[in-house]
């Protein structure tokens, strides 16, 4: 089927195959039904003749049997005309009456006693169809054999046609349903490449711009459209790449000027102006670093065999953020499972996520409070604080980039939690926030165990 790229060609070819198969099967089925109908009519006709012959039998006072057949009916059973043949046998198999010139039975006695319908090929080459009917006459039972030469079978053609159509017309509807089912299967087979391309297209997103639709397996009519879509995806990927490169380059270029400005600020005389400038520079440096993290994470993909010790990652993040917590008169602790917790992921990216969760907790809790980082063996990290908590209406928004509840405050640009959400997505994990019953917020980062 791969050589036929056109949908129309595929449908026509498959239809031809289906019609060819149907044209073979339908005559066979109709022939079988017609043959069964003809045999049934033939059998009923012979049984009727057997009962007619039985009506001519008369028991005698001495126990014998006589046949009183009207003269006008005898030619029907004569050997010259040969439309029907008959023989009457007693229970011992002796022939009492026969239309055969040799006076013998039509069929052997053991066969006649066991079969209701049989065929015998005669020495002349013709085939004799017949039935055996048991009929009581007086107090005795007799077997009446009636046969017909197939050479004269055309006398029942009209009856066959009349009986055949009402009995087999119902088969037309199932055949049409079968053809409809075949058509559905044909169209599904012909459009299978289009469905596969739809599944591929569904996987394309801002972070999967490298995916392309397969062109070689597409039908001829759809190939130009698929080619145009792939060209558009290439242009889109180029735009995203240029945007990410610009963001990363800008963040890199800003780091050196910020470092120089901070060095010059440190040379100023101590006072409120220097402290304010230093605080502004710290916030700007933090924002630049977060922008650089975002740019790097846009193209970040976790390898299928990558794994990291979540407990070690959290320990490093707590140690890294401990000086900031102490500087702001807050405490930080690592709790939970102390043994290695292996999860599927990249240690550096997970470190960034946990670090941002801890930094967010430190910056949004009052002085003198504590931050707790809990690690469980199921691959879950909980960062709990004693702050004001997060309103229910903001719990979905806080993970969006540049979202801030109060834009009047200079601290933060709404990138820290966005980084956490991106890391969780890249690791097929999740991040959520809720309020603790005793007060404060708890951020839960769930990862897949390795």
From TrEMBL:
<keyword id="KW-1133">Transmembrane helix</keyword>
<feature type="transmembrane region" description="Helical">
    <location>
        <begin position="168"/>
        <end position="187"/>
    </location>
</feature>
<keyword id="KW-0472">Membrane</keyword>
<keyword id="KW-0597">Phosphoprotein</keyword>
<dbReference type="InterPro" id="IPR003594">
    <property type="entry name" value="HATPase_dom"/>
</dbReference>
<dbReference type="Pfam" id="PF00672">
    <property type="entry name" value="HAMP"/>
</dbReference>
<protein>
    <recommendedName>
        <fullName>histidine kinase</fullName>
        <ecNumber>2.7.13.3</ecNumber>
    </recommendedName>
</protein>
<feature type="transmembrane region" description="Helical">
    <location>
        <begin position="12"/>
        <end position="34"/>
    </location>
</feature>
<dbReference type="InterPro" id="IPR003661">
    <property type="entry name" value="HisK_dim/P_dom"/>
</dbReference>
<keyword id="KW-0902">Two-component regulatory system</keyword>
<keyword id="KW-0808">Transferase</keyword>
<dbReference type="InterPro" id="IPR005467">
    <property type="entry name" value="His_kinase_dom"/>
</dbReference>
<dbReference type="GO" id="GO:0005886">
    <property type="term" value="C:plasma membrane"/>
</dbReference>
<dbReference type="InterPro" id="IPR036097">
    <property type="entry name" value="HisK_dim/P_sf"/>
</dbReference>
<feature type="domain" description="HAMP">
    <location>
        <begin position="188"/>
        <end position="241"/>
    </location>
</feature>
<dbReference type="Pfam" id="PF00512">
    <property type="entry name" value="HisKA"/>
</dbReference>
<dbReference type="Pfam" id="PF02518">
    <property type="entry name" value="HATPase_c"/>
</dbReference>
<dbReference type="InterPro" id="IPR004358">
    <property type="entry name" value="Sig_transdc_His_kin-like_C"/>
</dbReference>
<dbReference type="GO" id="GO:0000155">
    <property type="term" value="F:phosphorelay sensor kinase activity"/>
</dbReference>
<dbReference type="InterPro" id="IPR050428">
    <property type="entry name" value="TCS_sensor_his_kinase"/>
</dbReference>
<dbReference type="InterPro" id="IPR003660">
    <property type="entry name" value="HAMP_dom"/>
</dbReference>
<keyword id="KW-0812">Transmembrane</keyword>
<feature type="domain" description="Histidine kinase">
    <location>
        <begin position="249"/>
        <end position="450"/>
    </location>
</feature>
<keyword id="KW-0418">Kinase</keyword>
<dbReference type="InterPro" id="IPR036890">
    <property type="entry name" value="HATPase_C_sf"/>
</dbReference>
């Amino acid at each position: 089927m791969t050589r036929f790229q056109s949908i129309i060609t595929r449908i026509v070819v498959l239809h031809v195959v289906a019609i060819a198969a149907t044209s073979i099967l339908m005559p066979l089925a109709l022939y079988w039904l017609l043959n069964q109908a003809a045999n049934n009519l033939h059998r009923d006709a012979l049984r009727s003749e057997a009962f007619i012959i039985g009506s001519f039998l008369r028991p005698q006072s001495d126990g014998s049997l006589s046949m009183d057949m009207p003269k006008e009916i005898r030619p029907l059973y004569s050997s010259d005309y040969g439309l029907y043949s008959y023989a009457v046998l007693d229970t011992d198999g002796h022939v009492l009456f026969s239309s055969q010139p040799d006076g013998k039975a039509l069929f052997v006695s053991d066969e006649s006693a066991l079969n209701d319908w049989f065929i015998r090929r005669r020495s002349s080459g013709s085939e004799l169809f017949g039935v055996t009917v048991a009929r009581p006459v007086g107090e005795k039972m007799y077997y009446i054999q009636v046969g017909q030469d197939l050479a004269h079978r055309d006398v029942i053609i009209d009856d066959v046609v009349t009986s055949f159509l009402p009995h087999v017309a119902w088969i037309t509807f199932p055949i049409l349903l079968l053809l409809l089912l075949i058509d559905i299967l044909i169209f599904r087979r012909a459009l299978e490449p289009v469905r596969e391309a739809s599944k591929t297209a569904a996987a394309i997103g801002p972070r999967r711009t490298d995916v392309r639709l397969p062109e070689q397996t597409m039908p001829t009519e759809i190939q130009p459209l698929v080619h145009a879509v792939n060209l558009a995806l290439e242009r889109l990927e180029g735009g995203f790449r240029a945007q990410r490169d610009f963001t990363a380059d800008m963040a890199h270029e800003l780091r050196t000027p910020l470092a120089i400005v901070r060095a010059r600020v440190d040379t100023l005389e101590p006072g409120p102006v220097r402290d304010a400038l230093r605080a502004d520079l710290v916030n700007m440096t933090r924002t630049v670093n977060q922008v650089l993290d975002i740019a790097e994470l846009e193209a970040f993909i976790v390898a299928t065999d990558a794994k990291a010790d979540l407990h070690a990652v959290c320990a490093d993040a707590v140690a890294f953020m401990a000086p900031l917590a102490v500087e702001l008169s807050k405490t930080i602790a690592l709790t939970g499972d102390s043994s290695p917790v292996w999860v599927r992921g990249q240690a550096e990216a997970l470190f960034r996520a946990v670090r941002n969760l801890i930094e967010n907790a430190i910056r949004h809790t009052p002085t003198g409070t504590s931050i707790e980082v809990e690690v469980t063996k199921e691959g879950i990290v909980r960062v709990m604080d004693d702050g004001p908590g997060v309103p229910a209406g903001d719990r979905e928004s806080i993970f969006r980039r540049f979202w801030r509840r109060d834009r009047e405050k200079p601290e933060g640009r709404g990138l820290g939690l966005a980084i956490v959400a991106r890391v969780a997505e890249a690791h097929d994990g999740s991040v959520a926030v809720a309020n603790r019953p005793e007060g404060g917020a708890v951020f839960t980062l769930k990862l897949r165990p390795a």
